[in-house]
Design brief:
CATH topology of one domain: outer membrane lipoprotein receptor (LolB), chain A
Strand content: 35-45%
Structural class: mainly beta
CATH superfamily of one domain: Lipoprotein localisation LolA/LolB/LppX
Distance between the termini: 25 Å
Number of helices: 5
Strand order of the largest sheet: 7-8-9-10-11-1-2-3-4-5-6-12
CATH architecture of one domain: Clam
Radius of gyration: 17 Å
Amino acid sequence: MRNLSSAWTQFSSSTLAGLVLGVGLSLSQYVFAESTEDEASSNSPSALPLYKQLEGYQSFSADFKLVSTDDRYEVLASQTGRVKFVRPDYFLWVVDPPDEQVISVQIKQVTVYDPLLEQVSYMNLADLSGADIHSILMDPSQLNSSQYSVSRAGSSYSIKSSSEQSLFNEINISFDGEVLRNIKVFDQLGGQSLFEFLNVEVNEPIDAEEFEVAIPDGVDVVGEKLSEQDELD
């Protein structure tokens, strides 16, 4: 797999993988955990309503628009695509052409497919770490960590990290009623990435087969797929 870097001078598919999955970040290991309202509220009063909002999403699907800018507000990337997840095991992020990329999580199996590079990378979710879009959406209990502070302004929440190793300085999450509308990520170098969600569907049935990634023959393969037993262990 490409070496993912926190140098945000150029937006690329590797940067997207870092945003979505925290790939390549040297943060404390992220582990899925059961959580309670008491745990979520111990960090800050604003963590509890955010936790409740996100915890109510057992499944989620939406189209997205992404605009990423540098510290001078110059546009580095403008992308569209689709995202969906079913807690606790399935997550899919698909970027439309011309910047095609597919990021899939099925239980512990992480698959990152880059059609433009003709490359697929396989990883174990347990080996990835950090607070990122995937982990915040899939398990908001991590907001209880002392690494983060959560504040609220109306229907928007700000998550700030105290770690110098974190990919982001701040993540803003905004809702329209109960519907997640956008996530804005402020990186350590002053860049911003705004994800807007459209055509949102919450808690509708999604088949596990929808998270499978069709990999054509002949692409470069990095890493190994997990066995069925490895996924369950």
